[in-house]
Amino acid sequence: MTNSDFAGSKLTSLLSEPVKVSWQSPSNIALVKYWGKTGRQMPVNPSLSMTLSKAYTESILTAFPRAADGLVDLDFWFEGQQNAAFGERMSKYLQSVTDIFPWLGQVSLKLETRNTFPHSAGIASSASAFSALALCLCTLDAEFFGILLDESEFRFKASYAARLGSGSACRSVFPGFSVWGLSKSLPGSSDFIAVPVPDVHPVFKTLHDTILIVNKKEKFVSSSEGHNRMIGHPFADARIKQAGKNTTDLLEAIKSGNKQNFIQIVESEAFTLHALMMTSEEGFMLMHPETVRIITRIQQLRKETGLQICFTLDAGPNIHLLYFEDQIEQVKKLIVEELLKNNEQNMLIDDLYGNGPVKVA
Ligand code: DP6
Q1: Band (16; pLDDT cuts 50, 70, 90)
Q2: Ligand 1 pocket, 47 CB below 6 A?
Q3: Average pLDDT, the chain
Q4: pLDDT digits 0-9 by tens, 72-111
Q5: Gap between the Cα atoms of 105 and 73, Å rounded
Q6: Ligand 1 in reach of 181 Cβ (< 6 A)
Q7: 215 lines ligand 1 (CB under 6 A)
Q8: Ligand 1 atom at shortest distance from the alpha carbon of 49
Q9: Closest of 54, 282, 250, 25 to residue 136, by C-alpha
């Protein structure tokens, strides 16, 4: 039976018992930034990210049989508690993908999620949350229909579904580095799905990301609102061109193991993202004074010590410090002695290159 055959039929006749599936899916850090979207969650430029290892969402999705009415019925739990605001976003998402998963209007769903990273750390959780949910949906889909997708078809379908929840989530379904958005340098790349970066020099598999928490508060301009502000942005055309070139150059650096080019592109992307925010029609700034102090110090320390360290920023004030395994001891010392010095909250999250989502059940 195919999905379209199924659209008009009754799942309840096939599903007599609740079915439970579960995935752990990580967050990712963008190195070339997705900033600006169009249509149904299509990016205006290609982006390239590294999937993390320790910061992940675990989701358990259970489908119960019920009479079909075409509407999504979701009971949402976040870290053991019902969460109306997040549940609402998840319900809206599920309703919006009933064209892909028509059975969503024919079951009752219970979604239980938890994050390994603190909720209040100012870390965006939408990439891990939506990728975990999309993977659960694709697993349920396969179980209901007995569809035997091969591993890569399964991941592409999950990436497609995750994108519709949150753009950056489509990159989290793959291990290591992935690209979302059409890039002339990567055959098979697409605006609809992310694809894994095929050629990665071993040194880039030893990349670490320590997130230095400058402020835990939720940011006052959401990513979605930030994307909106790229519409009609005076630098939009130049930015789209630059992101294309940076994707090409970063792919080359990752392939050849060129750390110096990697550092230059990654920092330029972080500055560009925040410059685009500041120069949008209704400009805004998400960096804090402490963000500026730390990134300035990282650049100075790189010069003074010769260590291969660099930073990137998300749409927020916290700093992702990137470095390689072989310099971990020296960098950890600098973090304590130099970088977290005036950081009142004195909080960090250690993460690294990850191997992608894991199916739990
Ligand atoms: C700055 O993926 O959170 O982190 O698609 O509206 O959910 P929506 O936005 P989101 O935007 C991420 C923006 C970014 C850059 C990136 O991850 O590429």
Answers
A1: confident
A2: yes
A3: 93
A4: 999 999 999 998 888 999 999 999 999 999 999 999 999 9
A5: 7
A6: no
A7: no
A8: 18
A9: 25
